[in-house]
Write a structure and sequence with these properties.
73% of the residues lie in helices and 0% in strands.
Length: 205
């Protein structure tokens, strides 16, 4: 599970406030897609959501709190589908086929979450987001390392941890690459799958 919303974010408890909360996040998403993370501010969010800025501050004390909540929600959506797919690594008879399915799933998640890449690119300049990303990456790496140890008997705990972090780094780099938005995205993804497949073959020997 992902961590709960930070204390600075006031979570809604009534139906009307839930709608307002969702509208704020929807407005923020639209602005990020149009102007990028740097173009986001609470005044613009209030204007786009057709509410006063005081209402925005009622739920979110600043821009970073809005970005943090968007990140948290996206991570929960990823968790709901990724952990199930990752769990198949330990027993699947076709590791390369599983790798293809995993990358396709990750690509679809990126398409379903158009602000994911802009948020990731903002990590270096927003410490709170950078820390959240570090925690989430470590969480996925721990789980993937456990699966690698179960799948490949020759891989010990230390190597499994290194391999897990490497695979996550490769996956993120591939999915965040501008090439994934080009006409050659399918070929680029094919090569990434082939590369990881070769790596898995080596682990099995």
């Amino acid at each position: 599970m992902t961590e709960e919303s930070p204390p600075s974010t006031k979570m809604p408890s009534q139906a009307r406030s839930m709608v307002t909360f969702a509208n704020i996040l929807s407005a923020a998403t639209e602005i990020i897609l149009e102007r990028g993370v740097k173009g986001l501010n609470t005044n613009l969010v209030a204007e786009r959501a057709a509410i006063n800025v005081g209402t925005v501050y009622h739920y979110f004390p600043d821009k970073t709190a809005i970005l943090t909540e968007l990140f948290r929600l996206q991570q929960k959506q990823r968790d709901d589908v990724l952990f199930e797919k990752l769990s198949e690594l330990a027993t699947t008879p076709d590791v390369r086929g599983w790798t293809r399915e995993l990358f396709e799933l990750l690509r679809q998640l990126r398409l379903d979450q158009p602000t994911a890449v802009p948020l990731r690119r903002a990590f270096n300049s927003i410490p709170r987001l950078a820390e959240l990303d570090r925690v989430e990456t470590a969480r996925y790496a721990r789980y993937l390392a456990e699966l690698l140890e179960r799948r490949f008997s020759s891989v010990d705990e230390r190597r499994a941890d290194a391999v897990a972090h490497l695979l996550i780094t490769i996956s993120v780099a591939v999915l965040d690459s501008p090439l994934m938005e080009s006409s050659g995205s399918t070929m680029f993804l094919d090569e990434a799958v082939r590369l990881v497949g070769i790596y898995f073959d080596d682990l099995g020997h």
